[in-house]
Design goal:
By secondary structure, this protein is α/β, with parallel strands linked by helices. It has two domains: about 375 residues, TIM Barrel; about 60 residues, Oligo-1,6-glucosidase, domain 2 (Alpha-Beta Complex). About 25% of the residues lie in helices and about 15% in strands. The chain has 14 helices and 18 strands. Helix 5 packs parallel to helix 6 and helix 11 packs parallel to helix 14. The protein is globular, with a radius of gyration of 24 Å. The relative contact order is 0.11. The protein binds 1-deoxynojirimycin. 1-deoxynojirimycin (NOJ) binds next to loops.
Length: about 550
Amino acid sequence: MPRTRTDQKSATPWWRDAVIYQVYIRSFADGNGDGVGDIAGLRARLPYLQELGVDALWINPWYPSPMADGGYDVADYRSIDPLFGTLAEAEELIAEAHTRGMRVVLDIVPNHTSDQHRWFVEALASPPGSPERDRYLFRDGTGPDGSRPPNDWRSRFGGPAWTRVTEADGSPGQWFLHLFAAEQPDLNWASREVRAEFEAILRFWFDRGVDGFRIDVAHGLAKDPALPDLGIPDDALFEHERHKEDHPHWDQEGVHEIYQTWRKIADSYAGDRLFVAEAHVREDRLVDYLRQDELHTAFNFPFLKSSWEPNAMREVIDRAVTGLAAVDAPPTWVLSNHDVPRHVTRYGRGDTQTHEHDVGAGPADLELGTRRARAAALLTLALPGSAYLYQGEELGLWEVEDLPDEVLADPTWKRSGGTVRGRDGCRVPLPWSGLDGPFGFGPKGTEAWLPQPAEWKTLTAQAQSGIPWSMLELYRSALRLRREQSGFDSGTLRWLEMPEGVLAFERSPVLRCAVNFSGEPFPLPKNWGVLLASERITGGQLPADTTVWLWGGGSSRG
Ligand code: NOJ
């Protein structure tokens, strides 16, 4: 049984080893037949998630938004977009998830608002130097007539990170900063008012029972007030991926005092509340976010990016486990999310590393990718710490690489002038049942907001339910064992000596996990029983690209 919520703080809070399921709400389940997922759809599928056996849901932004970036452009942080439902429905969903033993984590987007947020509308209507403009980062342009942006920073979605506004009198005016799309103006975190507002927003949702927040762009809030140039050539579309020690807008020291304040707010609520940071920073700097008085956990992107290769995997695992021990933060594990190509596709390519926006990065062998994804799932779920599952990975969904140009909604597509397709391929609505689209995503006869591949009829939840060796049943079994089997709660991992190409570790003296990355079968130790394997085991041999969980404690599995 999932652990029940209590008002007490626990010695081992739930988030230290939870399995958290990411709900990309617009693509999860459509309750009202408009082609877009919503709260009603999610609520109707809570029994599915309970049966899957996850401990918590992380719901991507569901707030009112013009959807310039799939909801990461928030117009009102205290309400629900009508596309998804109402605040009352959100409250009922939170309550029902709790009744079913699952916690609810929301996405908070503090780096930027939507350009339709009341504050930004007020800023545009107010003069340069006004308090309304001070909530954002407005600056005069450079060059004799101010027609060049204040500096050379680039948007993550391509192109300049500055857009010029037209002032109330119709003249060309100041520029505002947006590290993402122009519809996502960056907030000024040096402003007291901005800080107070977000503290109130956290309380608003904590008061409604949410168990935590995933912090979007957690490393971006504080900017070097001098806004210095990065030294990027004029014609560069994207910022070069470089880890400048003193980067002026990523990982600035100033972020930490914001999170210290947030932590005090979380701690002031009953029970164990969670913050998980989306912080793309150097691993040795990540620990600073996870100090005892700051955030609880952070996503482990090196694991998500790692190639399917034993030495690379072992190295990222080791770095996570040992690196975070210094601050007593649990490691986290994630293979896919709404921003990267699905791992079935990635693992089926020649180059199995994650590259951003790499749709079309070479053909994928989906059979091989699926086999490796099964092995990766058992590896991930055997590691100490908490794990994030991205909706649809339990069905073995692959990246949809042939979406027609006209349906692409990711701002990257437009901002790159139609050269970078973006992230829609991992956001295609889930197939639940039936033989034709929308595969139970919405009522029969409706069309999902992105077209689903016809081949997904074999991957629906219905088609896989109760079918031995299906991906869905593999996940269900793994989550059940992880909950029930002693040893998974040890919090530790000890590597075992293995031949080249095989990784094996012990979670307790009687619980082991072995992964065979080599192309050859590997003989399993005698006297150990197979608890679960990602492929059939015959003749005591662990086949290639297979993971096994082994039990050495005799017949009782205490
Ligand atoms: C990270 C989110 O995961 C991504 O989807 C979004 O586009 C950016 N942050 C901007 O909010």
